[in-house]
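hey can u check if this looks right to u? its 301 residues, i copy pasted from the old doc so theres a chance i mangled smth
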Amino acid sequence: MQEKSSVSEIDLTPLNIQDETSTLKKVIVGIAENTGEPLDINPMSRWHIQQGTYPTDDLLKVEVEKFERLLVANGVEVLRPQNIDGVEQIFCRDIGFVIEDYFLIANMKAEVRKKELPGIQHIIETFDPEKVIHIPKEAIIEGGDVVLWNEYIFVGQSDRTNYAGYKFIKETFPNKLVYPVQLNFGDDPEDNVLHLDCAFQPIGENLAIIYEDGFTTWPNIIFELFGADNFIRVSKSQKNRMFPNILSLSKNTVIVEKSFNELKFALKSKGFNVLEVDFYECSKLSGLFRCATLPLERVSS
């Protein structure tokens, strides 16, 4: 009689992330059920609190649910966090991330953000436990600062990710070429770059969106890797609207905020299929589509 497979063998969630643009199969998307009191944890959110324009849960939820429906309509399997009362859970990218077939539980700087982790515990429990990595406490790192491009890993050096975080990634993945990228961060929302994916993101086969003034040290490796003619360059005002923080569904299809007319034109002129959805209210919290997603599986076409 054939021996039955164990539940763990049947139900383990496959993990595979090698880059930012292979076909997206499975992803965690944040929620906005009841986010609690406005969080003064980054310059952009602080500015909207002061201006009285901080978004309500109702506005945030409408945008997040439209985004989820767009993903599902395009063949992506969407998983959701469990709601935690009074905790903002939109930007799940930062609380964990996948490199190859490993899931890394982020060690976040802001204590309030650590409250988000229990919301995805039910998903983490479906991973092979031998493939789950707990980042040590001295290595501060958030998923928005980790950008993958085949054998390369770029780690933003920001207010949210320290040098020990970069070193941990480099030592944990010795088969990869891991580079620190120094970001321009501070209290001014006009100049602050919260995470690497707010200033740089690869798209397609060999292109990238970049905000060149977002770096305190010129990232030579990025320009050498992609080539000077293969960037869509954005301005400071476009950076503040989160132009670099789109989401690739594949090497030729991207999701873009509906109001990003200049970016949509640039992408279409380079042959991309551009999908549009409103995310303006969510962007007031200093995040957009990459921030609101935690990809678990991408596959090569």
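Confidence is low (pLDDT under 50) at residues 1-7.
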